[in-house]
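pls design
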């Protein structure tokens, strides 16, 4: 896609790409390197590799769909939505990294548990069980706004519900199986990704 199809200028395209790159740099540093160091070599008992594969493939798919829907201008937004979109994308990055930092050594991209795994209820985990996924949701919605398309926002929400809905379903089955009643009780006190709603 060229900037003429979606963005109003090359600078707008560059801004979008920079924020997008920042997400993946933050993922490598905050989501891989730091948690691995905190684990100190402790292994994660992994399961449900399929959900990992689906997550990885969802990113190029959502990016493609967002740009397609924005390019054909089904329900366009005004130019100022671009700046709101970038701000929302950055908010998603910050929120996800906060959630990862609070979870600390227990964070892993793969579904699984560690030795002496404990439930974390501080920070965003006090209200929602999967704030790192909420960060992805915020980021994806921001992408839809940045390309100035309501339809792109809606497709982002739809794909998130399908992909991360499945991820959350299988992850919680593992956590219930491994952590037992303590996780069931935690589920009763919290929502999945949006406080007080869902």
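designed seq:
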């Amino acid at each position: 896609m060229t900037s003429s199809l979606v963005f109003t200028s090359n600078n707008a395209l560059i801004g979008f790409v920079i924020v997008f790159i920042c997400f993946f740099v933050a993922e490598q540093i905050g989501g891989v390197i730091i948690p691995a160091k905190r684990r100190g070599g402790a292994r994660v008992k992994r399961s449900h590799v399929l959900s990992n594969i689906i997550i990885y493939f969802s990113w190029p798919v959502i990016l493609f769909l967002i740009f397609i829907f924005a390019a054909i201008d089904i329900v366009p937004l005004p130019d100022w939505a671009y700046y709101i979109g970038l701000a929302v994308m950055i908010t998603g990055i910050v929120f996800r990294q906060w959630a990862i930092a609070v979870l600390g050594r227990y964070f892993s991209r793969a579904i699984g548990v560690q030795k002496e795994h404990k439930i974390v209820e501080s920070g965003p985990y006090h209200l929602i069980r999967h704030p790192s996924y909420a960060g992805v949701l915020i980021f994806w919605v921001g992408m839809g706004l940045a390309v100035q398309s309501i339809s792109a926002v809606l497709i982002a929400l739809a794909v998130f519900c399908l992909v991360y809905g499945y991820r959350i379903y299988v992850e919680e089955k593992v956590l219930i199986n491994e952590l037992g009643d303590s996780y069931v009780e935690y589920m009763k006190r919290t929502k999945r990704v949006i406080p007080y709603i869902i």
